């Protein structure tokens, strides 16, 4: 009888055997009676609840969160397939991919999106647990982590699987979203929205993107993939993309992953996946419907922050500003401040995350 009870308990609660409160197989009748007293049952129930909640923590690296935040652990198993229907609007999501050092930029970007009333569609793909928990604690359901979390060392060893995962992360995450049937807008978080970009996604093309070249184009420029430059390929930015959940967009993501596998990796290039993206676009151009977004609306930072005359000429046409063509958090922050785009100083309350 008592061994039967033990067996059943083991089946229903795999943790039982690890803890001293599990009844030993030689349980005497006194103990058996005490097991069924209401207080013992209550205690056992609470222990099961407590360990059931705590158990996912077991293989998390220590020091990531404090014991005062037990509720957050439920996000550890929150999946992309659960997150997408939660945030999507009309089958479309807005996605960014980031780790903890970028949280301030995330918040700045979110304020600008909230001003366009598009914040509900935002899904943060967290690259570490700290980011996953921080965002979901403030804004439940809006961050997801797609395992595995990469260990920096493994990720940087050229030729290793970790290396492949590291470089191919962005197209892999985006491909997964497309495969699950959602359209996706991807943004780097060193961006600020000045207007809603969705009205600019004209027609029914597979992949929409922006040019990273600083050369000024006429306002009525072509929406085709620009011709190759000096390096034999165009200079399309992998920083801002809109992908429809079509075979064409999926093909571009697959080719991007392939190109990244062919590329030699170096510490100086870091996670620069843009050349591979451009090779992929060129190779897929015949089969896929591509669309270059207007330069005046989506200028590269190399143009917007460097040519006052152009900015004045195109006033009122700007939609998303990208703080690129500059390296380092401090320099980026200062430049956003100089141009009145560091919204975090005075408008943090507008972010769904609040002040971080
Ligand atoms: C919803 O998506 C469809 C197809 O992508 C589009 O035609 C329609 O305009 C969208 N509706 C809204 C309200 O955005
Ligand atoms: C690389 O990604 C694959 C697929 O997601 C995963 O199974 C594998 O464990 C990862 N390897 C490393 C070293 O990160
Ligand atoms: C843009 O407009 C100019 C004249 O205003 C015209 O010559 C040119 O062909 C147009 N370009 C495109 C791509 O439509
Ligand atoms: C800056 O923009 C103006 C106006 O479009 C243009 O005429 C000029 O050539 C640009 N300057 C540079 C350095 O690109």
UniProtKB/TrEMBL annotation:
Keywords from the UniProt entry: Cell wall biogenesis/degradation, Glycosyltransferase, Golgi apparatus, Membrane, Signal-anchor, Transferase, Transmembrane, Transmembrane helix
Example GO BP? rhamnogalacturonan II biosynthetic process
Q: Where in the cell is it found?
A: Golgi apparatus membrane
Question: What are the Nucleotide-diphospho-sugar transferase domain coordinates in residue numbering?
Answer: 120-336
Q: A Gene Ontology MF term for this entry?
A: UDP-xylosyltransferase activity
Task: Name the EC number(s).
Answer: 2.4.2.-
Q: Which domain of life is it from?
A: Eukaryota
GO cellular component, as recorded = Golgi membrane
Any stretches that span the bilayer, and where are they?
A: 35-58
- Membrane protein topology class: Single-pass type II membrane protein
* Pfam hit, one: Nucleotid_trans
Q: Which PANTHER family match?
A: UDP-D-XYLOSE:L-FUCOSE ALPHA-1,3-D-XYLOSYLTRANSFERASE-RELATED
- What does the sequence similarity comment in the record state about its family? Belongs to the glycosyltransferase 77 family.
Identify this protein by name: Glycosyltransferase
Q: Which organism is it from?
A: Acacia crassicarpa (northern wattle)
């Amino acid at each position: 009888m008592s061994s039967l009870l033990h067996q059943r308990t083991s089946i229903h609660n795999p943790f039982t055997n690890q803890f001293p409160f599990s009844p030993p197989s030689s349980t005497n009748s006194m103990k058996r009676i005490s097991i069924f007293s209401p207080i013992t049952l209550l205690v056992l129930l609470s222990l099961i609840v407590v360990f059931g909640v705590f158990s996912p923590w077991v293989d998390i690296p220590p020091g990531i969160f404090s014991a005062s935040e037990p509720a957050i652990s439920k996000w550890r198993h929150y999946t992309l397939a659960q997150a997408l229907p939660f945030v999507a609007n009309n089958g479309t999501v807005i996605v960014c991919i980031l780790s903890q050092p970028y949280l301030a930029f995330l918040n700045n970007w979110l304020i600008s999106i909230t001003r366009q009333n598009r914040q509900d569609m935002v899904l943060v793909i967290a690259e570490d647990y700290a980011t996953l928990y921080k965002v979901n604690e403030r804004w439940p359901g809006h961050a997801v982590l797609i395992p595995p979390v990469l260990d920096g060392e493994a990720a940087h060893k050229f030729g290793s699987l970790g290396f492949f995962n590291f470089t191919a992360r962005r197209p892999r995450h985006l491909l997964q979203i497309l495969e699950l049937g959602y359209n996706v807008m991807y943004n780097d978080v060193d961006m600020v929205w000045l207007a809603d970009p969705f009205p600019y996604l004209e027609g029914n093309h597979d992949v929409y993107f922006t040019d990273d070249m600083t050369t000024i184009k006429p306002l009525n420029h072509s929406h085709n993939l620009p011709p190759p430059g000096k390096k034999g390929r165009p200079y399309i930015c992998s920083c801002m993309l809109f992908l429809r959940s079509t075979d064409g967009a999926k093909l571009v993501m697959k080719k991007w992953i392939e190109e990244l596998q062919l590329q030699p990796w170096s510490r100086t290039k870091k996670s620069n996946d843009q050349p591979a993206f451009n090779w992929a676009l060129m190779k897929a151009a015949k089969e896929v419907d591509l669309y270059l977004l207007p330069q005046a609306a989506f200028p590269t930072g190399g143009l917007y922050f460097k040519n006052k005359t152009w900015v004045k000429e195109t006033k009122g046409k700007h939609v998303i500003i990208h703080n690129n063509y500059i390296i380092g958090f401090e320099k980026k922050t200062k430049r956003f401040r100089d141009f009145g785009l560091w919204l975090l100083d005075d408008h943090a309350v507008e972010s769904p995350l609040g002040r971080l």
